[in-house]
Amino acid sequence: MTSPHLPIFEPLVLPDADSEEWGPHQIGGSTSVSGIPGDLISLVDGYRNVRVCDFSQQGKRIRDMQAAQGYNRGRVSATPSEEEDKGFQLVDTSSAPRKHHVNKYSQPRWQDHRNNRYQQQHQHQRDGRYQRGGRPGGGRQQSAYQQGWGRGQGVARGIKDWSVSPNPDWQLVRELPFTLLAKAHVDPKNVAYEDLVWCGTGLKAYEKTYDRVSPKLTKSLKQYLDIAFYNVSTGQDPVIEQLLTNQPVAKGQNVTVACTDSVLSVMMAANRSVYSWDLVITRLDNTILIDTREGSNLDMLTVNETSSEPPATHPGEGEGANTEAFNTVYKVGEEATCINQNLTVQASHGPADQKKENEYPNPFDQRDEDEEEEEEDEALPPSNVAYRYRKVDLPRVPEESKSRNISMIVRTEVDAYVPQPEGQEPVYAKIRALNEIPSTQQQKQPWRSSLESQKGAVLATEVHNNAFKLGRWVASALLAGTNVFKLGYVTRARMNDPFHHSLLSVQTYKTEEFAKQIGMNTSNAFGIVQAIVDLVMQYKAPGADDEEEEEEEGASFAGKFLLLKEPSKSKIRLYAVPWEEFEESDGEEEMSESEDEEEEDSGLSCMPSAKRLLLSALCFLAAALYLSNFPSFWRTSRMPGITHMVAFKLKKDASEEAIQRLMDSCNTLKEISIVKDITAHRDLGLDPERNHDMMFLVKFDSIEDYKAYSTNPVHMEIMRTILLPILEPGSRTALQFDN
């Protein structure tokens, strides 16, 4: 047998050390190496200048560039060793793949239509639909886009990112793994519901024609740019504030919790989540307020959060269709949020006579205020969603000695009602939609073909991919008392077009049965809420006497906590955080500067400067701890006007006679006509670091009266002659509550 001919490699001669040359000598002046088969980058002479190697780039990118630029497309290189096979040639008849490389400094084409095609989100942001409170488009509240969403700083940043980075100064109260949360249970049969008040512009009937929608008979999803969708936080809801004032003060083993169904559903479905999220919990004695931060990622929906193939965090990550910019985790979340808002309006857009009037109008409708202030941007009418404020009572766990009876004031939302024959009780509905995004899984069929014959399989897949989102929806429906759950399936008109959508199907479920179908354990859901509230109530500040019982008569506590989900891990953390955490420092500084200027102008420059904050009436819990002892004054807080509070620390050598003179000065100040009410209190039990031991509360009808009070001669004389001599320097803190 004749051995095959092998190329002979001759040793290369290197240049001398003194030579200016670098590398081996050229072989015969030719650029080819005889006897070595292969392709030397490119055989097209002078076509490209190619670097020998580039360690800063990945090989895949170079291969993709060569394929896109047509390097050696449709041909096989003819080296000298192949001259004998000239009669044999390979021909590639397939079309070469085209890859679009977008310059990072240029704007993607789909964004060119951002303002005119996907304008709903930005219209919402400009008109205040995603604002957390206040007038649409104004005030201290910022829109979602202004808060950083869309710049990689907001909703659904990615699986590995914290919603808020833990601060080393925070105290870790407890780390709760999901395996531990799974053991918490409260019997749902013992959970009691009570309607407190209904608010809204009018609840419309669900259009039953949407139950007949199918993949062969689809409906186009409209965009409602002339309707405002409000998402007001717990602390800025005036109805919750009023309901809290009407409730008896919780003491002993009783706890009052104020929150929204959106916030409470996060806790109830916490053990189904993957992405990081956080909730702010504020405690004042036995009253707890649960809320979200400004710009929280919980204000937007997620898509395929619990899937094995979640959306990419940034364009170009991964492989396949999900690498486009409009398929990233933020964009599909924004798309899902708008889809659900539009479907809720469209599916309940019945005739005007098919409308259930509520007891009170929408508490967040700002159209009347805008007309009075003659703003340039006309306020939009609110959606027809009904706000159903309910009282939800969780009984204490008998086995747990430190468990509490929890009474929750919850703002829930009802999307529509299903018409019933006369004499029957109304049936309320929650309307939600799942949206389809492109997938790289080859075995996955599009919804247009699979919903006809495999509805159960599609739902099972979505339950796996969106377990947390579906759990939140079902929890909200249970809290709102909606007997019917309408689940829509929405897909894009074209998969590369995230702006136009079609409704393929609407499936109807009984809420409790649907909860079982998706594996939602309502007993465990309420148990998680009970466990977290008990942890907050059992917390004692560092240095506190362990033997002192919180239930002791006269004992009080105020603190702020953060419930934080760790990204990609099955655990949540409860932190104790400082009071000033998550406050809007910029707005406070501006208010402080303006108030200090007013004080100087008013003639009170002799007084030490006071730290001033502008807060809503539910956000001053730390500074107004004593208010629980004065319900008569607190119950007037929702009256229109200004409440001015000044807290300060007295000198240690201040005589009791001087302090009593200061207390008696209230009677003199009450004689001022613009003062509607004034009270003075001692032994406040505030933060020991501040150690304020006296506080004045003054009520006025308007800010003008407050300014006039600052310059009133009687007020100024009392401040100079009575307060200033016994005031500890730098201890004066002033707060102003605009009701």
From TrEMBL:
Q: Which Pfam families match?
A: Dabb (PF07876), eIF-3_zeta (PF05091)
Q: Which UniProt keywords apply?
A: Cytoplasm, Initiation factor, Protein biosynthesis, RNA-binding
Provide the Gene Ontology terms for cellular component: eukaryotic translation initiation factor 3 complex
Recorded name of the encoding gene: EIF3D
Compositionally biased tracts (Acidic residues): 367-379, 583-602
Task: Write out the ranges of the annotated region (Disordered).
Answer: 67-150, 303-322, 345-385, 583-603
This one is known as Eukaryotic translation initiation factor 3 subunit D
InterPro entries according to UniProt: Dabb, Dimeric_a/b-barrel, eIF3d
Q: Which parts of the sequence belong to the Stress-response A/B barrel domain? A: 642-737
Q: Where does the source fall among the domains of life? A: Eukaryota
Q: Which GO terms describe its molecular function?
A: RNA binding; translation initiation factor activity
